[in-house]
Amino acid sequence: MASATLFAKAISGRILHPMSASLYMDAEIRPHRSLSERGFIVLISLVTVANCASAAVFLMMGATLVPIFLGFDMLAIFVAFLVSFHASKTVERVQVSALDVRVVRETPRDSVVVWESPTAFTRIAVERDEDRVVGVKLALSGRETPVGSALSPRERAEFAKALDRAIWKAKRGG
Is 5 within 8 Å of 32 (Cβ atoms)? Predict the structure, then answer.
């Protein structure tokens, strides 16, 4: 399966926002695929050959139902990879401007704003477990939404610092 590790590309500084307000952060978090398309084909081919060889052995022994279950096994592996590849196309975009903080989830089909709040009142809540950052959330008036949840703990900590710095700069206007 594809790795759950994600990388974050954060651009801090003044970048023009589509609504002409300057952005202090435009972070794009996209999945890292640990298995290329060619690697997927090789892996599925190897699993198919192994399952066919196993099915032949079981058929020769008279176990006629085993190849059916091996077929279900192949189908389950294939579906799991399809779901993983589909999820790897989802991009989380976190934008900080002087006016608002916005989180947008983008897929090949659509783009959905999942969080929007005034920058002046937005807080960052960092959840820690011992020395690791296990969660980063944007919070406002009792509402909160997780951001960068699939990042590794080290990447999450770096992202939380960059996000906090961008919100701080946006609140102070520079």
Answer: yes
The CA-based angle 64-65-68, given to 5 degrees, is 115
13: left (phi over 0), alpha (psi -120 to 50) or beta: left
- H/E segment holding residue 108: none
**How many Cα atoms within 13 Å fall on the side-chain side of residue 171?**
13
Token pair listed for 64: 């006629």
Amino acid (one-letter) located at 45:
S
Q: CA angle at residue 87 from 84 to 91, to 5 degrees?
A: 145
> What are the pLDDT tens digits along the chain (174 aa)?
333 333 334 433 333 344 446 889 999 988 777 788 898 899 999 999 999 999 999 999 999 899 999 999 999 998 998 888 888 888 999 999 999 999 999 988 899 999 999 999 999 999 988 888 888 999 999 899 999 887 888 999 999 999 999 999 998 886
Other CB atoms within a 10 A radius of the CB of residue 73 amount to: 13
For residue 67, the number of C-alpha atoms closer than 13 Å in the C-beta half-sphere is 13
Residue with tokens 């099915």: 55
Reported pTM: 0.68
